[in-house]
């Protein structure tokens, strides 16, 4: 049984023409023989469980009056071991588009870079920037063609194009959603709590950044797989720029400063014998 | 022994691609076609030949893009089908309608491929492609030819007697809008075609209404208007000399 991916390919070129080779290498979707077993779905589920790393992270993004805020933590974990506290989870696809990383780090990094290449080629061929809609669709189509092969990507594509601010959620199951507020990762329930209750469409950039920072902080407080540094980016009409990167430990003491408790009795040194 | 890897289009010693030039000859024998770009309207016009040769009307490639061609009609069908699929495929992969420039580039690229491959001959047609940019709303007119080159135009003509039509346009073109653009296209066609609605087919593309084919009665009405204007101009020329 062979997967039919012809719908995802552009119209097949005529035999003997060599001009499309570069395009084929970059854009061809793979196809391969699938195992002939009785319960293919069950087999797929087992296979995915074996390779799927838990998406231990917290990332969020939301659209508001002044554009898009994108924020993420920076912890990488392998099971119970914290392998890094300084991972860049917000990937700069190009000067006006950002992608977030959740799931397999290599998968996210590679496919975002690949998306950056495609966006640039689109710009060169069509003399205008690709829209956020188009970019997210390109990524979603690629991830869909690898569906079931163990890719683990839960990403948000945020940017500002001719239609204004744009935000899409794209994942390795092939799903693609347009929305105004998303949070992805193991810490997302905690982040959603803070984000949803504090969100207003007309906030200033500083207010929105502070909301994002708090949401990431709260997620890192409760979720063991999230931590490190809370980075906050803003995407406006002129592109993105990084607003802050604060260590969540320091944020904790900023939000909940330790009040010195009054001491009843002070201990004194014992007199030297 | 047939050698399918042997190209039909090869260079001549003095740098010509004769097959492409012969294809251009086929275009010159096709029906006359004209395209005019106005500020808010683009118009395509083709001559309806009275001979029984099958005629391809002006076709739409998408809701906002129309195409007229001159040359071999069978080749046109193939090219138009491929272009229509590409328009939809583009909508699927980037969720955006194609721009006129993009689909022109695609069609021209296709025409060029067939001048540089083994066992095939070039498409024997030139196309006039009109439409509106889906976001900026700017109207555009492009022309492609069998060699695979394409360029943007304010107005152009192809097919039979295209030289006379082009001369007329060079003398009489000015920025127009709405009905004036339609009139200019019809006046150009009338230079080389017997007058009357039954010999001309006109399609008008506007941003609001997309592609609209004018029916015979409408064309006849405009032709009558043009004739009246011509007659009035003639009379005006004669009148002053009568007074002296």
Automatic annotation (TrEMBL), chain A:
Location(s), subcellular: Cytoplasm; Nucleus
Protein name from the UniProt record: Proteasome subunit beta
Catalytic activity, as annotated: Cleavage of peptide bonds with very broad specificity
GO biological process: proteolysis involved in protein catabolic process
Main subcellular localisation: cytoplasm
Gene Ontology CC: cytoplasm; nucleus; proteasome core complex
Family: Belongs to the peptidase T1B family.
UniProt-listed PROSITE patterns: PROTEASOME_BETA_1, PROTEASOME_BETA_2
Gene3D superfamilies found in the cross-reference section: Glutamine Phosphoribosylpyrophosphate, subunit 1, domain 1 (3.60.20.10)
Organism: Musa troglodytarum
GO molecular function: threonine-type endopeptidase activity
Entry keyword set: Cytoplasm, Hydrolase, Nucleus, Protease, Proteasome, Threonine protease, Zymogen
Hydrolase is among the record's keywords: yes
KW Metal-binding (keyword) present: no
Residues forming the catalytic site: 57 (nucleophile)
Oligomeric and partner information: Component of the proteasome complex.
Function: Component of the proteasome, a multicatalytic proteinase complex which is characterized by its ability to cleave peptides with Arg, Phe, Tyr, Leu, and Glu adjacent to the leaving group at neutral or slightly basic pH. The proteasome has an ATP-dependent proteolytic activity.
UniProtKB/TrEMBL annotation, chain B:
Localisation: Cytoplasm; Nucleus
Domain Proteasome alpha-type subunits: 4-26
GO biological process: ubiquitin-dependent protein catabolic process
Record carries keyword Heme: no
A cellular component annotation (GO) from this entry: proteasome core complex, alpha-subunit complex
InterPro entries the record matches: Ntn_hydrolases_N, Proteasome_alpha, Proteasome_alpha-type, Proteasome_asu_N, Proteasome_sua/b
Keywords of the record: Cytoplasm, Nucleus, Proteasome
Gene3D superfamilies (alphabetical): Glutamine Phosphoribosylpyrophosphate, subunit 1, domain 1
Complex and partners: The 20S proteasome core is composed of 28 subunits that are arranged in four stacked rings, resulting in a barrel-shaped structure. The two end rings are each formed by seven alpha subunits, and the two central rings are each formed by seven beta subunits.
Family assignment from sequence similarity: Belongs to the peptidase T1A family.
Role of this protein: The proteasome is a multicatalytic proteinase complex which is characterized by its ability to cleave peptides with Arg, Phe, Tyr, Leu, and Glu adjacent to the leaving group at neutral or slightly basic pH. The proteasome has an ATP-dependent proteolytic activity.
PANTHER family per the UniProt record, alphabetical: PROTEASOME SUBUNIT ALPHA/BETA (PTHR11599)
Protein name as catalogued: Proteasome subunit alpha type
Source organism: Musa troglodytarum (fe'i banana)
């Amino acid at each position: 049984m062979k997967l039919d991916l012809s719908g995802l390919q552009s119209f097949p070129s005529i035999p003997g023409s060599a001009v499309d080779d570069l395009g084929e290498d970059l854009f061809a979707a793979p196809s391969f023989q699938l195992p002939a077993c009785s319960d293919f779905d069950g087999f797929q589920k087992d296979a995915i469980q074996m390779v799927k790393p838990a998406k231990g992270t917290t990332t969020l993004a939301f659209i508001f009056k002044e554009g898009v805020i994108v924020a993420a933590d920076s912890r990488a974990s392998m099971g119970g071991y914290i392998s890094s506290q300084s991972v860049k989870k917000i990937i700069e696809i190009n000067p006006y588009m950002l992608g977030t990383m959740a799931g397999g780090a290599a998968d996210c990094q590679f496919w975002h870079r690949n998306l950056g290449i495609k966006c640039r080629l689109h710009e060169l061929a069509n003399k205008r920037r690709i829209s956020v809609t188009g970019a997210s669709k390109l990524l979603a189509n690629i991830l869909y063609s690898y569906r079931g092969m163990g890719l683990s990507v839960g990403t948000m594509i945020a940017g500002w194009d001719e239609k204004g601010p744009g935000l899409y959620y794209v994942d390795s199951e092939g799903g693609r959603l347009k929305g105004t507020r998303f949070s992805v990762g193991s810490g997302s329930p905690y982040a959603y709590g803070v984000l949803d209750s504090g969100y207003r469409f007309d906030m200033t950039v500083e207010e929105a950044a502070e909301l994002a920072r708090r949401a990431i902080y709260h997620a890192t407080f409760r979720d063991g797989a999230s931590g490190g540094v809370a980075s906050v980016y803003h995407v406006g009409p002129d592109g993105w720029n990084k607003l802050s990167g604060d260590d969540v430990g320091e944020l904790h003491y900023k939000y909940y400063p330790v009040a010195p408790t009054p001491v009843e009795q002070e201990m004194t040194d014992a007199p030297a014998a | 022994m047939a050698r399918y890897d042997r190209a039909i289009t090869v260079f001549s010693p003095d740098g010509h691609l004769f097959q492409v030039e012969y294809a251009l000859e086929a275009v010159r024998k096709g029906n006359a076609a004209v395209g005019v770009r106005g500020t808010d309207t683009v118009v395509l016009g083709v001559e309806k030949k009275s001979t029984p040769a099958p005629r391809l009307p002006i076709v739409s490639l998408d809701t906002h893009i129309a195409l007229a061609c001159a040359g071999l009609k069978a080749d046109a069908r193939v090219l138009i089908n491929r272009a229509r699929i590409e328009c939809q495929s583009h909508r699927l992969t980037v969720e955006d309608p194609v721009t006129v420039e993009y689909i022109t580039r695609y069609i021209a690229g296709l025409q060029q491929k067939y001048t540089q491959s083994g066992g095939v001959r070039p498409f024997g047609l030139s196309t006039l492609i009109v439409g509106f940019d889906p976001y900026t709303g700017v109207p555009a007119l492009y022309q492609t030819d069998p060699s695979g080159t394409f360029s943007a135009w304010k107005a152009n003509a192809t097919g039979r007697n295209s030289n006379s039509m082009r001369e007329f346009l060079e003398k009489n073109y000015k920025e127009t809008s709405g009905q004036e653009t339609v009139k200019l296209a019809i006046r150009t066609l009338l230079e080389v075609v017997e007058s009357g609605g039954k010999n001309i087919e006109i399609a008008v593309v506007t941003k609001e209404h997309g592609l609209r084919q004018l029916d015979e009665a409408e064309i006849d009405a405009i032709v009558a208007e043009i004739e009246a204007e011509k007659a009035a101009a003639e009379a005006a020329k004669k009148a002053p000399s009568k007074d002296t």
